[in-house]
Design goal:
By secondary structure, this protein is α+β, with helices and mostly antiparallel strands. The chain contains 20 helices and 48 strands. Among the domains are: 1-35; 50-168, Topoisomerase II, domain 5; 236-319, 2-Layer Sandwich (Gyrase A, domain 2), CATH 3.30.1360.40; 495-636, no CATH class; 675-836, no CATH class; 859-892, no CATH class.
Amino acid sequence: MDSDNNKLDKNSDIELNKKSDYLQKTVHLTGMYKNWFLDYASYVILERAVPHINDGLKPVQRRILYSMKELDDGRYSKVANIVGHTMKYHPHGDASIGDALVQIGQKDLLIDTQGNWGNILTGDRAAASRYIEARLSKFALDVVFNSKTCLWKLSYDGRNKEPITLPVKFPLLLAQGTEGIAVGLASKILPHNFNELIDASIDILKGKEINVFPDFSTGGMADFSKYNDGLRGDRVKIRAKIKQTDKKTLVITEIPFGKTTNNIIDSIISANDKGKIKIRKIEDNTSGNVEIVIHLPNGVSPDITIDALYAFTDCEISIAPNACIIQDDKPKFIGTKEILNISTSNTLSLLKKELEIKKYELQEALHFASLEKLFIEKEIYLDIRKCETWKSVINTIDKGLEPYKKQLYRNVTKDDIIRLTEIKIKRISKYDSFKADKSIEEIEINIEEVSNHLEHIIDYAISYFIHIKKKYGKGHERKTEIRNFDTIEASAVAVASQKLYVNRKQGFAGTSMKKDEYVCDCSDIDDIIIFCEDGTFIVTKVSDKIFIKENIIYINVFKKNDDRTIYNIIYHDGKKGYAMAKRFAVKGVTHDKKYILTKGTENSKVIYFSVNPNGEAEIVNVYLKPKPRLRKLSFNFDFSTLAIKGRSSIGNILTKNNVRKITLKDQGISTLNAIDIWYDDTIKRLNTDERGIFLGSFYEDDKILTITESGYYKLLNYDLSNHFEEDMIIIEKFNPDKILSAVYYDGKSNKYYAKRFKIDITDKKTKFITDNPESKLINIINDKIPGINIFFKQEKNSHEKSRKSTKIILSEFISVKSYKAKGKKLTDYPVKHIKLLEPLPYEEETKSDDNITDEQINNKNNLHKEDKKKDDLPETNKKHLNDSPPETDKKIQMTIDF
């Protein structure tokens, strides 16, 4: 037993020792994770996802281009072959190489493609790599490669060498853009315009300030007001280009960067299904260019629909750039200006290095040409006939050159002498001293030229950029229009797809109460305003059903910052208080907060309420309750005698007696001034904020006239949601009596015509020049006495002197006719160009009183009477009588009997 116990103790000791050794060898996971994760993160950042600042390429892109250079023989190569060849350098498989190659090819800069490479507009993928072909573009061959200035390293398996970075002499990173997600960081650099980058690089070399903005291959419009040099935290808004072809049709012709026509269509269908917009049909006619046709139902505003497309679909997107690059083997976040400065500096140093290499090569060529000339002309080669050893040959040649060494460019080396010994006898026998001198002279001229370039390296670099732009800049014009965007309120453009109902007595409101009183159509993102009989109101979001308060007297959709809708109310201040009257607007409010319109006295009650969309001030009949000594039981009250104040004002005393009833006597007129409208050309929208060109003061029936470069005019209302044509050249308040003069080229007759006309009032977009596709508007003039100067071409094969210019006063040349008239031909001679004359002074004809008829005298007297009446009116009404306002909007009144 004892022996057994001893064996057990020994076994226990062995197990404890093993356990102790195991604990000493334990490696904590935290340390492993920290080291391994950092290694992995560094590898992904440096070797996969983030571009290098020197050449603007990720490793896979660099390896693809280098492989294509190795395969380059001027002909197209199968993409499958390029992918296979690139796998010598890239260890991550053929799929990543193929995808990267297609992306480079679709940017249409470094690679010439052949076959189906997909479509960035529709999102269609490229064909399989065995079916498509590629080769390096001439631009890439000129700009990207130079083995003499390239730095090299071993490939991943050590069998080949590959470039560390390619010697790119162009801001390629900004031209192509890039996007990559690494571990712990990401890079998103937006593409920029080819020609604008070259111009900016030239400005940098000249020491000027630069400002470059992205340009996208899909076109569209972009707002770069918050771009801030592409740094982290910045935003770029991009919109599709949407044109209105008629009242029921919209066409999307350009789309935001990163989106496809399928994305756009899906987002539009989704917004339509959710009731945000209302469309009848959508068609995709995209092939070489984007063409998405949107058909609208009857009664749907195309202008509001365009805003809704921007608000609720992918027709407007926001991109957050994040300029992250690799520099000195570390990731850095820098702006696009700094990237361009570094790229320009890198290009400058590469050009300098190329010149230095070229100068060295020319100097070596000059040195050997001079050495060869001495070796042959001085017959030094004859001295080596008696030499028996190689060493004696070298020494003999060296000794023979000794007297002439001072004439040479540099010292003679052993390699130089060996090279002389390799000259063939045939060449020596045919040596032409005159040709040799001429060749040496050419080399010296080239050296002098290169030296001059090195001394003026900045000018040389500028010339290089100009040459690149001239050679490759065609076809790289800016595609994305730089614009400032207005902020679109989603609630203002959402389609009213819901119906709002109310139970006034019980105090409920919502979109699901279909058995109750219908109020209006609304959208599910609208706010609603509700007034109650106790003199309180609240603004809240639309919902299925919500309790507000008993005895609702008014409910409707609320328009934020609406200062033209005026509320007129009369309320009793408590049971024994006076009857008070007030006028107010409701602008900014806090959601779901109860506001009090009375003094706050208990049992206060609203006895009259009206809503006036254009600030109308009605006249009401006020009936009082009979009481002793009260003789006058009714009187009229005109709300125009009250000033419009804030909603918290208590109002004016209407009467100290008890009111029995109030009824409407007269609708009244607006007490508000006309709306002042401005046009902001930067965002191409109307506004009331005094931004841009002042168009005038507008009443309800007033119109805006727009004229386009393509020869159309259009009359619009002054709705702030209006959109305007891209080629609009005139926008002004419409004056029906104004005469316009147009000079245009008729495409059918190839002659120039002039016409004078008044605008016909119509809702349609109207063409006032001939319909021929070649017809074009030359000038549109709204001067009272318009004049032009015609300059003529000298006819071919004519020995006559060029014809003198002709001045024409159009008001004398042609009378005013319909816009449909063709007009009058200006000349039969070939026209060089037409210029406008300075407007001539205009004097109105005055008539003596002797010629005035009796009817005119009566009219004049009547006008004096009207003026007298105006003087007796309150000041607020005078302006409107003078301006003859149109009929006001329909008002809402509510009378409460009690």
